[in-house]
Every structure is written in structure tokens, then in C-alpha cells.
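Re-run with default settings, no changes from the original entry. Doing this only to confirm the output is reproducible before filing.
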Amino acid sequence: MVLKGMLPAVKNMKNFEKLLKSEHEYIVILETRLSQIGDLVAYAKRANKKVLVHTDLIQGLKADEYGVEYLIRNVQVNGIISTRGAVVSIAKKNKIIAIQRLFALDSHALNHNLKMINKVKPDYIEVLPGVIPAVIQEVSETTNLPVIAGGLIKTKDDVNQALDGGAVAVTTSRMELWEL
């Protein structure tokens, strides 16, 4: 369960189908409807892909214990991304990849999120926006957990700065960056 490099994030079917033919091992599903998530994960698994799902962005899914249980048992996702510590804790208890999404809005928000992360102990932390290498480094050093950079990643330089800042991986929905 080692995530590194580029983690392509999909928001639409055209990009999803392209990723099924790619060399990427993992696919991040950001936005979809509850009625589609099962089929998307099944298609991805038939293409030998592992799927990480952002629970907070699935329309029709309540991101609580029962919603996550449904994703784990029925849909059989490989990992969960969420801003909610309780959701991340459920993923950890079920031994799937647990990624805590952290929005670095200001110092107060960062400190609040770091306290929650120290309680939850996710497998990875996704820092947004991912274009602030100093924050990536601070989160990594403070938590001793691998950091994924996401949000506002628009260029190859953004990817390189995030990785140079200590991120182990970068998530982006920009297709032109997926092959870096």
C-alpha cells in the first residue's frame, strides 16, 4: 500500500475511460453519483486498477459509518479520501487506504487539522492547496505521515515543487499532467 508519484483524479467518464488504458495503478474518483460508483469501481478493477474514492463528493452518499461501510463491503473500494476524521477512522479499521484531506486555509485551520490527524492517524494526508511546499513540509514533519499534494496543481512546475517540498504523490484532474 505505497502511494507515490501521480495519482490521477477523475471527474468525468471520458477521463475515466482514458485512465483504464493507462499504466497508473491507482485511480482517484472525485465526483460521481451513488448510482454510478459501483459500476465505475467494477470497471476499474476489471482493468486491474485500484480505486480511491472521495466520500465527501459522492452525490447521494452520506459520508458516515454506514455510507463508508457500503463503499467498503458492497463497492469494494481500495481506499477512502475524506475531510472527516470519523470516516478516515472507519477506513483504517477496515484495513483499506485511509487518506485525510486537509485544507490549509490559514494557521488556525492548519493547527486544528493537525490535532485531528494526530488522533486519527490516517495512512496519508492530502494537503490542499498542493502548491505550498512549505505547508507540505510542515505537515509531513509534524505528523511523520506521508503527504499527498492536491488542489490547484496546474503545471509541471507545480508537480515538481510539491514533490520537492516533501509530497510522496500528487493528485490532479488535469489529464496533461497524468503522464509526468
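The mean pLDDT is 96. Residues 131 and 157 are 9 Å apart (CA to CA).
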